[in-house]
Amino acid sequence: MKTLGLLQGPQTLGKGKPFWSAFTLVVALACAYPLFADGYDVGNNVYFFNWAFMALGLSLIWGYGGTLSFGQTAFFGVAGYTYGVISINFGDAYGLTIFALVASVAAAALLAAALGYFLFFGRISGVFLGIVTLSVTLVLERFMAQTAGPEWRVGAARLNGYNGMGGMPSLTIPWFGSDIVLFPDVQLYYFTLALLIACYLGLRILVNSRFGNVLVAIRENPQRAEMLGYDIRVYQLVTFIIGSALAGLSGVLYTSWGNYITPASMGMTAAALPIVWVAVGGRSDLTTTLIGAMLVLAGFQALTIHGSQYALVVMGALLVLTVLIAPRGLVFGLGTLVAALVNRKPKRQGE
Amino acid sequence: MTVLFSIFSFLYQTGDAFAFLVLSACGLAIIFGMMGVINLAHGEFIMCGAYVCAAAARAGLPLPIAILAGALAAGFAGMVIERIIIRPLYDRPLDTIVATWGVSMVVTQGTLILLGSTMPGTGTPFGSFTVGPYSYSVYRVVLMVAALGTLGLLWVGFTKTRFGVLARATIQVPHIAQALGVNTGLVYSLTFGLGAALAGLAGGLYAPTMTLVPTMGSAFVVEAFVTVVVGGADIFLGTAPAALVLGAVKASLTSWQGQLAGQIGLLVAVIIVIRILPRGISGWILRERT
Amino acid sequence: MKKTLNGAMTALGLILLCSAANAQDPIKLGVLEDQSGDFAAATIGKVHGIQLATEEINAAGGIAGRPLELVIYDTQSDNTRYQEFMRRVLQRDKVDAVFAGFSSASREAYRPIVNQFDGLAFYNNQYEGGVCDANMIVTGAVPEQQFSTLLPYMMETYGKKVYTIAADYNFGQISAEWVRNLVKDGGGEMVGEEFIPLGVSQFSQTIQNIQAAKPDFVVTLLVGTAQASCYEQAAAANVNLPMASSVNVGQGYEHKRFKPPSLANMYATVNWVEEVDNPQSKAFVERWHKKFPDEPYINQEAENSYLAVYLYKQMVERANGSTDKEELRKVIAQGDVCYDAPEGKVCLDPKSQHMSHSIYLAKVNEDHSISFPKVWNDIKPYWLGEVGCDLTKNDPSEQYTPSNLPKAAN
Questions:
Q1: How close does chain C come to A264, measured CA to CA in Å?
Q2: What is the extent of the structural domain holding B170?
Q3: What's the burial of C21, exposed, middle or buried (CB within 10 Å: 0-12/13-18/19+)?
Q4: Which of A231, B289, C17, C54 is most buried, with most CB under 10 Å away?
């Protein structure tokens, strides 16, 4: 019960009945959504959900931990390719794709542990850390882009270089009778939604716990945290691993959704995008990050569909305006505004 | 004799890589290194300089004037952007990422809409010369000279002129500078404009050798950033030696194993150098001094 | 009697009404092309080609009496946008066919989705060859069409020592493999091979390597605007060697973008360029410039896109107005779906669903004008059929390469 109590706390926005009622309402609407939306919209929303995990992970690392990691796409790519390699080699029977999912996220976490050790125990911080993580993701991209030849294979799975690896089976849940293949449709929607809610609530508990409090203390003033006896490198490393594992989860879900993964997912533009989504929403809170990322993704897509050649101009202008008008994030600004209105104390008589 | 030819070839290739890194990075070294603004629109200032230079050269201006025109245009654009967008963000470096990314999108797409997907180039001047079995382009040597010249002029400018001293003071201790009556707003604008103008200069210098498309800045951005960060906060004690080290690594690997090795090797070198010197090269040198 | 007549008239009226309504029902064509981002320079023309063909076809009464309607999305040179919009165009807009893709990566990104929804997609770009997929119709040129014409000519004219510089990814590596094999078959010698990662724009070392190897000519398979800078830099260093390419000039119109004489002595095998000099081609160029006066250049991909619309029209009309994929494939299987395109006569091959091409050897002169020393007509896309791809018999939905051949059927 005490753990559940950590669902709200000083590190996350939103507490009490109004917030949780709103939350339940949103979840209910999300569950009911496939009933009144067509197949395209359901699959498209799953596509947006896929990226949400990366945004949440970056919020943890950057918003709560204060570490700007420019290379989350490296873990996205590593997990995606690992999923492809495992599922192509072993197939999708007996729930092996679920094993592939877990193993791929674990591979991303392992890489994060190695890189994180290198970074935090090497006392690399600030913008230097950003550049090192960016270099890592670019090295992976450049390397993978030239693996087109037939010698680049892991078992039966060809890496296939710049053209990308395709042909991997989608996530399949073993079921009595026949397996449920999670195509971008209703079943995948619920699967991803359930994962998203679980991760969101889990992260809320994490950041409101003692771990989260120490993390924020490290973000605010690393030397003070160290003087209080905390080994900040361990906390930063663990945060980095968890956040990068979430990026890896995004990678696996994306690869399964489109049956395709490519080195371009680890390139410069791809690396900058999560930072933009998270910054627009408000990186220091999970809820605002989530809402902000969804809004930016959906908004940019809508602009591209309807805005023809002006879409990119409008998107760029929106980003600039966001930063100038709402410095802590657009959704964060809105959120605090709403919170202020809701929590306004009623005027007492006679004052 | 062959040894001499090989030595010349090695020096040429290293100098070529060094010039590319210095010219791409010095503008960013001022904007990022000195002012702390993470300018993801750096490539667009370069593109601006390249486009203006190419347009001016095609209109008949001699190439050196065209290059200067490119630099000035980029500088002016930089001052405008600084005033409107960057000014409120000086103590929020991470927000400059989003703002400048937005500027980059607007400028790239805007150029595509207004000027089309490609611009015809100007040819490379000065022809070639031969050393031993190879012929080399004279213009690339000109670029190396330009890189060294730019560094020299910057050093003189920042240490010997009044503006340079004021700029460094304003950026390091703005409140004291203001208390002493310095127009800090103007100094910020001019310094940012200088950084943008240097980017434009790089664009103008390389314009005769490259394809001119709105996204051409992306060829410079990554290497500029890694050079500046590896260098650390100081341009002369940081960016220049970083460009030398990274340029040598890139040139050697490229000549030994090919372009892919050069590219990956550069990035791996970045990772290693930052691991050994977590505050960059200039951070290490300056701490050594004190 | 009157009642029967009334009933008959009503029935007839209803039938006429229905067929009239059906006749007005447009045929929808999805267009997913990069109109912004890195690839825009080469692909904006493709959209224009499709628009020009649509305008002409609608002015002449449409396809089987139905107007042709375009649903255009800008994929921003981003593979994820191809995935998003292919789903949208097939599931939401429910188009009858899609014209999509420039880079091979984008094609491989959207192919699983086209297969999932059993749609029909046209890939109108030259590429490395090998796609054996019943849901794809490929009008772009493939290596056997471009290299088996180019390399023997170059070796005969200039000599047998060849140096290849290629973009370091699938297209470049597979094309280089074709070059290697053809050079060996022709008794030549590869004196060097260099692979350049995409996005590289500085070539000083490569230029030196070429000079060290002393080839008779250089095969340049450079892709993307950054890599094209090599020509300018090589000319500045006075390398002065003839060059052979399957991808430059025809796709990226470098001879218009770089100052002469940087591309002098470049030989490119293209299936069409703006400079082709026959009456039909000239008339086509004129119609194009009337509709799009600001077009910097009409490249071969734009011409492919234009003629692909007409091919589609022919297939639908020969299938009695049906846009069903299997009906159209039956028409293709008849083996004579051909069209009189600006490049010449082109035909669809039933086994691979690729297209035969006229191949023009375009030589860039000192002033960057183009002459055509040789023209080959009706070069078929024979390789896929030779290695065992037969879409009239089965649908593997795979991409094969010379080192990844179909398993021999037993």
A1: 8
A2: 22-217
A3: exposed
A4: C54
